[in-house]
Give the backbone structure.
Amino acid sequence: MTIMRDAVADLRAVLTGPDSVLTDPDLLRAASHDEADLCPAGVPLAVVRPRDTAEVAAVMRTAAAHGLPVVPQGARTGLTGGANAVDGAVVVSLTRLKGIRVDAARSLAVVGAGVVNADLTRAVAREGLDYPPDPGSWESSTIGGNVATNAGGMCCVKYGVTGRYVAGLTVVLADGAVLRCGGQGPERTAGYDLTALFTGSEGTLGVITEVVLRLRPARRPDRTLAAVFPTVAAACRAVARITAAGEAPSLLELLDRTHLRAVEDYRPSGLDTDAGALLLAASDAGPAARAALDAMAAHCERAGASELHVATDQVEADALLAARRLAHPAMEHLAARRFPGGRGGLVVDDVAVPRDRIVELVEGVARIAQRHDVLVGVVGHAGAGNLHPVIVVDRSDPDVLARGRQVFDAIMRLGLELGGSCTGEHGVGLLKRDWLGQELGPVGVRVHQAVKRALDPAGILNPGKVVLPAHDGS
Ligand SMILES: Cc1cc2nc3c(=O)[nH]c(=O)nc-3n(C[C@H](O)[C@H](O)[C@H](O)COP(=O)(O)OP(=O)(O)OC[C@H]3O[C@@H](n4cnc5c(N)ncnc54)[C@H](O)[C@@H]3O)c2cc1C
């Protein structure tokens, strides 16, 4: 106990300003987990809130000296338990690292890890530039969290996930040393690609404090199409046709009937709640956008769309996208109504398959849900082959929870059998650690373990996430 008090005192000694080391039990509990259900979370020793890289390095040195685990956190919007604390951990909240410097001449921005995605997007838009990755959580999730999970979003079907935009990183390593990799100059090709290594490493290899991001010229406005389908499979057939034909939608999003009903119940906007699915497609190809939408509409019609509607203006297009953005809160609302008293929960799956196999994925998900008698809605970035089967569970009912877990695992298995991945964007965290092992195979796991051991020999960085050390028997 004295040792722990000494550790807290040492943390206080290296951090400046008020509220930099929090130990209030209520705050510790609140900071102990992200948005994922079914993931264990321990009680941290303290939450620390450093202001810059030097303070993060001092925290890391202090934690290393005391042998304490360190869990980096952004906004805790993660959906895999990746930001969950372990008992006695030092939780490092990066939210005070807020700087944004835009270098318009080089189309780059140097951004603190705690900057919220939407704040960056707005800041670069003022300079006539664009930062494409737009996770549904963009109004709250941080750039550090986005890089650490290699986050995706709606426009990633055309513009790619976060990693494509990371030109350089400042990372505090497990011993407190500060690594700068990549950078603002010419594209770096010398040596190992450390920038790529830390991107998507989920806080297990180092704490990201600053990111150099590539920017693009401002995008032209989207033209948006809404296509209504009698079944989810028909909507997915349209997706497969659109992508096989080489169309380049700037967005191709799917909501199934469960989601349409949940969104309409949560925030009524006239969605067709009898439809099997809604597909939203957009093009930002400027003068060619009209022809691109016509081509996508034709593919939808051939796949069995019962209704097609092109948004007449940006207000209407934004309203359609708002329905998609409301999918997660609307499903939380549905779960809360179905299982009142705080019992309702969601397990959000995140599976990516080759785009010509998403029909098999959604048909398989429906079969699995029926077999286990569990409600599963499907939503996602269909154009990227990345879908989120969302499993509705009663947290208080061990039988429903067990069936929810079986459904989750069966969907993961199906995704891998279809040649896919256990994550399209949310990362691995705790929720999919076993499935990452299946996906990588023994050699891939061994290389992951070797990298982890090399960078974090004492195993103090975000322990238990992504991959277990070799001596833990996996
Ligand atoms: C409503 C909703 C919609 C979402 N939509 C999407 C979506 O469209 N696409 C998508 O990809 N995700 C989505 N997510 C998931 C989540 O928002 C992303 O994973 C996001 O990137 C997490 O950012 P964060 O700041 O909240 O990080 P956290 O949840 O705090 O942390 C996530 C992981 O990154 C690590 N980490 C955080 N910051 C750092 C750092 N500075 N250095 C090292 N490691 C760090 C943590 O340890 C943890 O492993 C959604 C979540 C919600 C709740």
